[in-house]
Amino acid sequence: MGALFLLCAALGVACAAMGMRMLLADRRLEARLGMAGDRPGFRLPAAFGARGRDRSEIADKLMLAGFQDARAADRFVWARMAATVGAGLAAMLVSRIGWGGFLAQPLLVVIVTGLTYVGAKQAIHLLAARRARAIMAEFPFLLDLMLMMLESGISLDQCFRSIARDEAIAVPHHARLIAMLVADLDRGMRYEQALDRWAARVAVNGAKELAALFRQALFQGVELAPALREFVREFTQRRVANAREAMGGITVRMVVLMILFFMPALFVVLGGPPVVAIFDTLRGVSQ
């Protein structure tokens, strides 16, 4: 009887392992084909999850920050909730150690959990802005490379493959994205869908227009060189505008720093001797 029980248990474990192996293989196949978003994952209750406009904003910012997975929004919501709960428990532990009770300082617990919940979304905003600046800074170089390659006589497909293979140092962000585009094409994906996926991965202004231009060049024979020159000029102007905006922000921060740190010392140096003289005069008159 015991041997039969062990045999059934071993068969059950083997069947479970085989099923898990098949499930993982199916997930890998879905990820390769870009179908991971078709199957809904387990989500938080509506009271704790992101819905509507908030969910759309989170998904867009995660895409811009470089998280290309279709379930990135769900994973972010879970991670934010776990971080919030962890921060709340840590604040309760600090309250217990410092003041003798887990809820001895309820305001501290509320502030820490609230800042963690809000700060998670601000963190992805910062990551998205940082990646967008890096991609926009590389766009003029990328388009110049493409323009030189196209004018030398190679095709657009060869241009994509050359950039993905050889230009990882010159344009590291775009080389990785174009390598993903080439991988989609090698898997048999149509050019229209592959270029749309590339534009979605880039996720900055002008990417969809570039994808449409590449489709027109591939299927309608539109000449790329003049349009690429216009895109180079546009992205260069955007980069100059961003640099000027950053310089303006630095000027404002310098003014604030001068007001906070230099002006008090200046007031002490300029106003200190007259104040001391006034007090000495008043002291002499009173005596």
TrEMBL record:
Subcellular location: Cell membrane
InterPro entries: T2SS_GspF_dom
Keyword annotations from UniProtKB, A to Z: Cell membrane, Membrane, Transmembrane, Transmembrane helix
One GO cellular component term: plasma membrane
Keyword Transmembrane helix on entry: yes
Domain Type II secretion system protein GspF: 143-270
Membrane spanning stretches: 77-95, 102-120, 254-279
Membrane topology, record value: Multi-pass membrane protein
Protein name as it appears in the record: Flp pilus assembly protein TadC
Organism of derivation: Sphingobium indicum (strain DSM 16413 / CCM 7287 / MTCC 6362 / UT26 / NBRC 101211 / UT26S)
